[in-house]
Amino acid sequence: MHSRNVVSWSTLMTGLFQKGFAIEVLGLFKNMVLEDNLCPNEYILATTLSSCSNSGMLKEGLQCHGYVLKTGLLFHQYVKNALVRMYSTFSDVEGATRVLNSIPGSDTVTFNSIIHGLLDHGYLSEGLEVLCRMAAECVVWDNVTYVNVFGLCSRLKDLKLGLQVHSRMLKSGDEFDLYLGSAIMDMYGKCGQISVARKVFDGLQTRNVVSWTAILAAYLQNGCFEEALKLFLQMELEGVVPNEYTFAVLLNASSSLSAFGYGNSLHALAEKSGFRSHIIVGNALINMYSKTGIIEGAYEVFTDMLYRDSITWNSIISGYSHHGLGKEALAVFHDMLAAGEHPNYVTFIGVLSACGHLGRVQEGFYYLHQLMEEMGIKPGLEHYTCMVGLLSKAGLLYEAETFMKSTPIEWDVVAWRTLLSACQVHRNYVLGKQVAEIVLHMDPDDVGTYTLLSNMHAKAKSWDGVATIRKLMRRRDIKKEPGLSWTEIRNDTHIFVSDDNSHPESNQIHEKVKELLDKIKPLGYVPDIASVLHDVEEEQKEEYLGHHSEKLAIAYTILKTPSRAPVRIIKNLRMCDDCHSAVKLMSKVTNRVITVRDVNHFHCFRDGMCSCADYW
DNA sequence: ATAGGGTTAG
C-alpha cells in the first residue's frame, strides 16, 4: 500500500490475532510506530494487549499499559477489558483488580475476563466474590459468563451452586451453544453426577470433539473407565476425529485399568493422528506406560518428547519411584533442575519416595528441610508420610514413630499404615501391634490391616493372637476381600481368583503351578506355611499357597505366551511373602521378566530378584 | 473502515 493509516494496520493486526498469530501482532505494532510514525488508537491497543496475553509476553503487556496511560486511552471499555484480561492471564490478581476498580464502568466482558483469570489460577473464593459483585451490580450474564460460572462450580465441586446456575440459565432463555454444553457436562461430571452429564450429552442437538471429550472425561472422573473406552468406539463410528485432549482422557482410562492392550493401541493411534509432540499426550503416555508396568516405555516417551513441562518431569520421576527405581528418579530430578524447570509440591513427593527406596535418610531430610524451603514449597502431609516411609524403611522404626509424634500435623491412616507395613517387614511385632491398633481405630473396616495383624501374630507363633483377630473380624463382620489377579493376553483379560477352581483350564493351571514350584524348591523356595490360617494339615497348607491368584495368573500366562514374552500381572491386594519369594525364583527358572502391580507397588522380577529389594 | 471475554487434558 502506498499510504496506510491506523485502520490499515488495525485490520491486519486483528486478522492475525484471530488466527492465533499473536507474536506477529506485536511485531506489527512496532513497525507501525517506527516505520509509519503512527500513533496507536484504542483499537490497536485492545488487540495488542490481547496478543500479549495470548502469547505470554508479560513485559510487552506492561509496556502497552504504559502506552495506554500516556495516550489517555484508559477510559475505552475495550482497552480496560483487555488490560484486565492481561493481568488475569499473568496471574497478577492485584493488577487485574486495580484496573477493574480504578476505571469506572465494567461490562459483562470485564467481569467474564476477571472471573476466568481468577479461576484459571486457582483463586476460587475470589472468583465467587467477583461473581457476587457482578450479580449485585446487575451486570447482564451471557453465555460466556455461564461457561465461566460452570467452571467455577466444577472446581469448587459445588453441585448445589451448579444446579442453581443451571436453573438460572434455563430460565434466562438465552441461545444454547456447544461451549455451554461442554461446560455443563464438565460441571456435572466433576460434581459426581455422571448420569446427569450423560443426559445433557444425549440431549445435545449437535456434538463436536469437545462435547465428546467432555463426556469421556466425565466418565473417567467418575471411575467409569471401561464406559469411557467403549463410548470412544461410538465416537469414531460417528466420524468425530479425536484431538489431543481425547487421547489424554482415553490413555488415562487405560492406565487406571492397567490395560496395556488399549494403551498401546491408543499410543499408535495418537502417533498416526499427529499428536506426537503434544505435551498433554506425552504426559498421558508416560503415565500410561508407568501405570501399566512398562517403565522403559515411559522413559522412551519421555526422552522422545520435544516439549516438556513440570508435569512431564513429575510423571517420569514418580513413575520411577513407583517402580522402586530410586537412582533413576533422582537422576531425572537433577536433570530437571539443570533444565531450569521449577519443581513443585508433587515433584518432591516423588523425590522423597525415591530417597526412601535408596535408604538415603540424610539426603531426604536435606530436601525436606532445605531445598524445599529454598524453593518456596511448604511440605505437606504427603511429604511427611514419605519421611515416615524413609525412616522406617531404613529400619529406624522408633525414629519414625518419634517423627510422627513430634511433627505437628494431622496424620491420616495412610501414614500409620506406612509405619505398620514397615513393622511387618522388619518383624517388629511389638510396635507393629500398637500401630495396628491405631490404624484399626482410624479405619475399623480395613481388611488389609487385619490380615497384616494376623500374619504378625502367626510369624511370632502367637496362635492365640491369631484367634483373637479372627474373632474380632467375625464380630465386626469383616469379610476377607477375595484375592484377584488379572493378566492381558493379546486382547483378552483373564481374571483369576484365589482358591477358585472354576476356570475351564483349572487342572492344567494347577499342574503348571506345581511344576513351577517343584522347579524352584531346589533353588531354596520354602513354602511359608505359617502364613496359612486355615486349620488344616501341613500338606494341605502348602496346596493352599499354590492357589494364590497371582500364582495362577502367572502359570496361565506362561502356558499361553511365547517363551520369552514378559508376564504382567495386576492384583487387588498386597503381595504376600510366599508369592513374592516364589515369583522371584520363577523369574529365574523361566527366564522371564515378571511384573506384578499390587495394590500399591510395582514388583519387577528378573533373574531371581525383585525391583522392590524385598521391601513393600 | 479497524477492537474484547468461553468448552475438553496430564
From TrEMBL:
<dbReference type="Pfam" id="PF14432">
    <property type="entry name" value="DYW_deaminase"/>
</dbReference>
<feature type="repeat" description="PPR">
    <location>
        <begin position="344"/>
        <end position="379"/>
    </location>
</feature>
<dbReference type="InterPro" id="IPR032867">
    <property type="entry name" value="DYW_dom"/>
</dbReference>
<dbReference type="InterPro" id="IPR011990">
    <property type="entry name" value="TPR-like_helical_dom_sf"/>
</dbReference>
<dbReference type="Pfam" id="PF20431">
    <property type="entry name" value="E_motif"/>
</dbReference>
<dbReference type="GO" id="GO:0008270">
    <property type="term" value="F:zinc ion binding"/>
</dbReference>
<keyword id="KW-0677">Repeat</keyword>
<feature type="repeat" description="PPR">
    <location>
        <begin position="107"/>
        <end position="137"/>
    </location>
</feature>
<dbReference type="Pfam" id="PF01535">
    <property type="entry name" value="PPR"/>
</dbReference>
<dbReference type="InterPro" id="IPR002885">
    <property type="entry name" value="PPR_rpt"/>
</dbReference>
<protein>
    <recommendedName>
        <fullName>DYW domain-containing protein</fullName>
    </recommendedName>
</protein>
<comment type="similarity">
    <text>Belongs to the PPR family. PCMP-H subfamily.</text>
</comment>
<feature type="repeat" description="PPR">
    <location>
        <begin position="309"/>
        <end position="343"/>
    </location>
</feature>
<dbReference type="InterPro" id="IPR046960">
    <property type="entry name" value="PPR_At4g14850-like_plant"/>
</dbReference>
<dbReference type="GO" id="GO:0003723">
    <property type="term" value="F:RNA binding"/>
</dbReference>
<dbReference type="GO" id="GO:0009451">
    <property type="term" value="P:RNA modification"/>
</dbReference>
<dbReference type="Pfam" id="PF20430">
    <property type="entry name" value="Eplus_motif"/>
</dbReference>
<dbReference type="InterPro" id="IPR046849">
    <property type="entry name" value="E2_motif"/>
</dbReference>
<feature type="repeat" description="PPR">
    <location>
        <begin position="208"/>
        <end position="242"/>
    </location>
</feature>
<dbReference type="InterPro" id="IPR046848">
    <property type="entry name" value="E_motif"/>
</dbReference>
<dbReference type="Pfam" id="PF13041">
    <property type="entry name" value="PPR_2"/>
</dbReference>
<feature type="domain" description="DYW">
    <location>
        <begin position="524"/>
        <end position="616"/>
    </location>
</feature>
